[in-house]
């Protein structure tokens, strides 16, 4: 049994994998083109096969996906140089903070404070970058019998919608763009369509095609 001061084995594995991703991104950045488009976020961004989909559509847009699964706003801030600043993008599409919705405490307050600080750091370092905040994506209706471990709280459309209101307000406050691409992903109850889901919070490549249908014009 791990001690209370040590992360669980699966958390240690995730940390190791994410450290490897950051090292890989750092190596890729050496050959990357500056002044292009970067997509930043956690798993819902990392899982977005945007480059393959753009190639299939015949697009020549240069987009660097710098999503890292499991990352919170604080985690992403620690890796910001490698994931965003070193690439000096002219356009940044960011969707970070959905994992913060599972943290107990002043969830929405902490999310707003952390996101504002992250965005201000980017704006200070890259004053000419056009930043667009993407709304958090929908989730399935939660199973009432499911249990959450380690004090984490379930993600629901109620907290997703509340967080999206905060993100939209932040975008206006800081002079960023805001895009809500959720409409084609929603069922009649306002949750993620089951036929698009691969688990309660992630969706399939078919869902990403629907997202790209709307996002492509902004890239």
3D structure, described in words:
This protein has 219 residues and is of the alpha/beta class. The chain has a single domain, classed as SGNH hydrolase (Rossmann fold, 3-Layer(aba) Sandwich). It has helices at residues 9-31, 43-46, 50-56, 73-78, 80-83, 107-125, 157-174, 205-215, and strands at residues 37-41, 63-67, 91-95, 130-134, 177-179. A five-stranded parallel beta sheet has the order 2-1-3-4-5. The longest helix has 23 residues, at 9-31. The N and C termini lie far apart (48 Å).
Give a short synopsis of this structure:
The protein has helices at residues 9-31, 43-46, 50-56, 73-78, 80-83, 107-125, 157-174, 205-215, and strands at residues 37-41, 63-67, 91-95, 130-134, 177-179.
% residues in beta strands = 5-15%
Shape: globular
State the helical fraction.
Answer: 40-55%
How many domains? The number is: 1
Ends distance: 48 Å
SSE string, helices as H and strands as E: HEHHEHHEHEHEH
Average pLDDT taken over every residue: 93
CATH superfamily: SGNH hydrolase
What topology, given as strand order, has the largest sheet?
2-1-3-4-5
CATH-scheme architecture: 3-Layer(aba) Sandwich
Q: What's the main sheet like?
A: 5 strands, parallel
Total strands: 5
CATH fold field value: Rossmann fold
> Helical region count?
8
Radius of gyration: 17 Å
Structural class given helices, strands, pairing? Answer: alpha/beta
């Amino acid at each position: 049994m791990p001690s209370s001061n040590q992360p669980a084995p699966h958390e240690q594995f995730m940390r190791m994998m994410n450290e490897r991703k950051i090292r890989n991104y750092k190596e890729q950045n050496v050959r990357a083109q500056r002044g292009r488009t970067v997509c930043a976020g956690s798993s819902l961004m990392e899982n977005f096969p945007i480059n393959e989909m753009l190639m299939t559509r015949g697009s020549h847009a240069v987009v660097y996906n710098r999503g890292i699964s499991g990352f919170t706003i604080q985690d992403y801030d620690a890796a910001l140089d490698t994931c965003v600043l070193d690439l000096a993008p002219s356009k940044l599409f960011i969707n970070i903070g959905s994992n913060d919705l599972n943290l107990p405490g002043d969830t929405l307050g902490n999310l707003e404070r952390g996101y504002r600080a992250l965005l201000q750091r980017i704006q200070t370092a890259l004053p000419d970058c056009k930043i667009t905040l993407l709304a958090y994506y929908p989730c399935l209706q939660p199973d009432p019998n499911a249990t959450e471990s380690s004090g984490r709280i379930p993600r629901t459309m109620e907290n997703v919608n509340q967080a999206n209101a905060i993100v939209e307000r932040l975008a206006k406050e800081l002079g960023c763009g805001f895009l809500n691409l959720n409409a084609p992903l929603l069922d009649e109850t306002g949750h993620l369509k089951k036929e698009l889901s691969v688990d309660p919070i992630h969706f399939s490549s078919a869902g990403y095609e629907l997202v790209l249908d709307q996002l492509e014009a902004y890239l």
